[in-house]
What we know:
By secondary structure, the chain is mainly alpha-helical. Helices cover 83% and strands 0% of the residues. Helix 1 (5-29) packs across helix 6 (134-184) and helix 2 (35-59) crosses helix 6 (134-184).
Amino acid sequence: xxxxxxxxxxxxxxxxxxxxxxxxxxxxxxxxxxxxxxxxxxxxxxxxxxxxxxxxxxxxxxxxxxxxxxxxxxxxxxxxxxxxxxxxxxxxxxxxxxxxxxxxxxxxxxxxxxxxxxxxxxxxxxxxxxxxxxxxxxxxxxxxxxxxxxxxxxxxxxxxxxxxxxxxxxxxxxxxxxxxxxxxx
Length: 185
């Protein structure tokens, strides 16, 4: 079974939307978005969105049977944790050297995993349908990388003027995304 180009594009853009929203929130949280921030976010989100469908495809139905009921809870917990931290940071007094950077370290990996769990499920679905995973994974990774670069750049441009409010809004958006994942599955 092959996917049409329109179906492939729809799946890729749909999977990239969470990463796009999180990229905007990351841009809001960083004091000044640099090309290095853009690269890190777009590379990591694109890489995870490329890899997760492959992992799901390779694991096939076994992964869903073992962990399927917990994927939503894991995504919720990760998004709620990062969103809660953003809300906390938005409301506390900041010192000049205490800026945190969500485009580095464990936070970036956590966000990459949280935004790509749905891609894992898509990979499992494609395995069950007998669809080759390689082209959809590459297209999804590239579209995610591009939208993530746009998102963090946009977030960085509106951030300096509205940083506290925007960071709080970003935290609320991440928590809402987690609730949506939990509620709608």
